[in-house]
Amino acid sequence: MLVYLTKEIADSMGVHPNTVRVYEEWGYLSPAPRAVNGYRQYDEIHLFQLKIARLAFRCEIIQGNIRNSEREVVRKVVRNNF
User: Fold this and answer.
1) Over the stretch 12-26, which tens digit does the pLDDT of each residue have?
2) Distance between CA 71 and CA 23 in Å, rounded?
3) pLDDT tens, position by position, 32-42
């Protein structure tokens, strides 16, 4: 299984590494295990979750229940509840 560091997974999606960390904090990515040195270790599942989150939040001018629905879809993906 491939393992990605925060910068590597962020670069693959064209986002800042802080975006990856914030998405994990907000529950849009499942918690990443830590290496002995404390670095997060992301895998293919995290990459899939990040792709779904970025796709869901692509449009910035969505309001109300549509945005809430997007958040719920992303959180269901994190829980493997398709």
Assistant:
1) 999 999 999 999 999
2) 11
3) 999 999 999 99
Q: Enter the pTM of the model.
A: 0.78
Q: Which fold has domain 6-78?
A: Multidrug-efflux Transporter Regulator; Chain: A; Domain 2 (1.10.1660)
The region, left, alpha or beta by phi > 0 then psi within -120 to 50, assigned to residue 60 is alpha
Q: Give start and end residues of each alpha helix (H) in 2-43.
A: 6-13, 17-26
d(CA 37, CA 44): 21
Measured distance CA(31)–CA(41) in Å, rounded: 9
Single-letter code of the amino acid located at 46: H
CA distance 14 to 55: 12
Q: Which amino acid is at 64?
A: G
- The residue ranges of every structural domain in the chain are 6-78
